[in-house]
Here is the input.
Amino acid sequence: MRVDLGTSFVLETRMSGAHYAEIRQALEEKKQELTARLERIHANVRRGYHADSKERAKELEDNEVVDALGNEARHELRKISSALQRLESGDYGLCVECGQPIKEGRLEVHPYADECIECAEFDEFRERRL
Ligand SMILES: [Zn+2]
Here is the structure.
């Protein structure tokens, strides 16, 4: 069950326009950083394999790590893009699950969080039980 805390709570936790601009900038910077990181990862992969078979085994191993890093960066990029979209549409800072505002402290730590702490914890709890 979810508790409706009422509109006064919503108004209190809604952020000012200036704060949104800061968040947008932080998101754009993070997006650029991740895009650059992905490009570096791809450049490493494109260097290809050496003919030597021992070298090759090691490089395949490295590429698995590179893949994991790439997936993580891509996952983060998707989150950032959707956060930027929500900034545009005015849905930013609202939980996609329950529609309640995400606390400002949480957004400072996770600027592209799309769920409030309660819903995120509930998801975690549910995953652990599955
Ligand atoms: Zn929620």
About this structure: Residues 95, 97-98, 100, 115-116, 118-119 surround zinc ion (CB under 6 Å). The radius of gyration is 20 Å. Residues 21-89 form one domain. The chain has five helices and no strands.
